[in-house]
Amino acid sequence: MLTIGQLASYAGVTVRAVRHYHQIGLLPEPERDSSGYRRYGATAVVSLIRIRTLADAGVPLSQISEMLDADAATFAEAVRRIDRRLRDDIQRLQASREQIARLTAGDGLALPPEVAAYLDRLREIGASKRMVAAERDGWILVAARRPDRVVEWMPAKLAQLDDPHVVRLYQVLSEIFDSDTAQDDLLVEAADIMAALAEQAYRSGDVVGEEEALDDLPDLLDSLATEQDPRTERLRALMRERGWSGWTRMERLPEPPGS
């Protein structure tokens, strides 16, 4: 006959685990002997090993008792259910690992890899750390609002970065946002570039349709830009002077009467 410590040692578990199995009714608790100790036989060792094996395989303790008493067919079906659950858990954990791996680059938080690659390209063309951070936060809003479309837009966004005017725009904006002064001359240059790009897109028919309007997202992105740097209000005013409204989705303003 075995003491509780010897039983635990045979089965490869702790004494605390044995007592817990007693408490939840998973392992029968023997009567005490004349000396006041509980003694266990070989059947208890076999039962405890089976319990440990099922628990190590991922079977919830609440289901082990049922499985121990099941016939072969019922046991096999229970194993299949547990296997399906474990496969789902593995897939979920693998997805979590992939997301954690993306976080090591800093831009992977709440963003797909395609957007993170776009942000890397911004760094390559000379966009400042603050400029890239502002873009990142904006794309987080876009990805949350339209996760089904954001990846589709990335090839066109990357292609835009081959345009020297777009490159210069990001460089100018970086200079503005990295400075604590007004930088009005740079704001004027940025407005000129943006107006020229907007005119080019307008003439080529590359305009935003109703589906791409993204509801209230442009207003939210404009608000984000203002919160990040109030000087974007001045930039929007300069754009209006040049006949364009908005910041995120620029639209041509009607010409004044008599112009």
Itemize the secondary structure elements and their pairings.
Blueprint: H1 4-11, H2 15-23, H3 42-56, H4 61-68, H5 72-103, H6 113-124, H7 129-145, H8 150-160, H9 164-177, H10 184-203, H11 217-228, H12 231-241, E1 244-245, E2 251-252
Antiparallel strand pairs: 1-2
Helix pairs in contact: 1-3, 3-4, 6-7, 6-8, 7-11, 9-10, 10-12
Number of domains: 2
Mean pLDDT reading: 85
Distance between the termini: 106 Å
Order of SSEs: HHHHHHHHHHHHEE
Characterize the main sheet: 2 strands, antiparallel
| Spatial strand order of the main sheet | 1-2
- Strand tally, please? 2
Unreliable runs: 208-214
Question: How would you portray this structure in words?
Answer:
The protein is rod-shaped. The protein contains twelve helices and two strands. The model is unreliable at 208-214 (pLDDT under 50). 18% of the residues are buried. A hairpin with a 5-residue loop joins strand 1 (244-245) and strand 2 (251-252). The chain is an all-alpha fold and 259 residues long. The chain starts with a helix and ends in a 7-residue tail after the last strand. It has helices at 4-11, 15-23, 42-56, 61-68, 72-103, 113-124, 129-145, 150-160, 164-177, 184-203, 217-228, 231-241, and strands spanning 244-245, 251-252. The protein folds into two domains: 4-100, Orthogonal Bundle (Multidrug-efflux Transporter Regulator, Chain: A, Domain 2), CATH 1.10.1660.10; 107-252, no CATH class.
Task: Briefly say what this structure is.
This protein has helices spanning 4-11, 15-23, 42-56, 61-68, 72-103, 113-124, 129-145, 150-160, 164-177, 184-203, 217-228, 231-241, and strands at 244-245, 251-252.
